[in-house]
Amino acid sequence: MTRQDILVTAMPLQHDLLRQLCDGRFHSGEALARQFGVTRTAIWKACKAITRNFDLRIDAVNGRGYRLPEAVELLDKSAIESAMQTSQENIDVHTLLSVDSTNRHVMDLAAQGEASGTAVFAEYQRAGRGRRGRTWVSPFGGNLYFSLLWRFTQPVADLPGLGLAVGVALVRVLRKLGISGLELKWPNDVLCQRRKLAGVLIELQGEMSGPYAVVIGIGLNVRMSSTAKQEIDQSWIDLATAGEVAVSRNQLAALLLDETVAVLQVFTEQGLAPFVDEWRECDRFRDQDVELHLADQVIRGIARGIDEHGALLLEQQQQLKRYYSGDMRLRGMEV
Ligand code: BTN
Question: Helix 29-36 and helix 40-53: axis angle, to 10°?
Fold first, then answer.
């Protein structure tokens, strides 16, 4: 093995090569080797490493070369920034090819003192995190995964309701795109045609009584890859199935970021109140027999919507009780 071959197992070549292959066209090993200044063996090895590290298939055809089965429109910092309405001074966009979890990454940045408004998008999450310790299946290049760091300098009313406000932000964006059949499942799942289209994971750093940082993680199914489809254990849908969406992934990223920031600015000043009516209007389970799954018990009742702070109201023996966490299901349904 040449020194070059050893060096190519390093990530930069894999990343450059992957970016090149995202055009979906065939590239000969020879041309790629020339372009990146390495041997053809090194290119072959890097392709192998990409399939492993990004859980991707690369077509390798004699006489034609390598290609990804489908072209991917990569997320691009300047494309997102130029499509955004929010002032660039307040928001710092980063795009990564791969990360374990954008939420985990941004939590680290928060601990290192990174500024409020740092937004990280990734093409692929090796260990995407869902609510209640679940995995968020995050195949390469099809969906949107992003986390936004937001610092609150003083205690904010209704912080536990923040996820509900972010759910409203998602519904607003999706409606602008012409998607119909949208509902919210408490606390913040976005459903379309009764299947999960997007999820929100809020993580907190600092003291509730003082300045603290919040990481708002959003996963939106845009176009789910066929291999990932089999890994998801909930009833789900992606935008490609939900309707014709006439915007690019970069534009969609900008729309999402704009709306999330707008909602956060209002939430910081006024809490959940300005979003409660919109949330209630989309409530999937209003007046239905439901089960609330907590860590160690299942509570049954009739869902009576949310209170003004975002708590779930469950009617049990003619009494209304408030709940602040848990997983909702229609009574007797598996998911
Ligand atoms: C849920 O379980 O519904 C919440 C899913 C949140 C997924 C997003 S994807 C971007 C961000 N990074 C993560 O690891 N999780 C969130």
Answer: 90
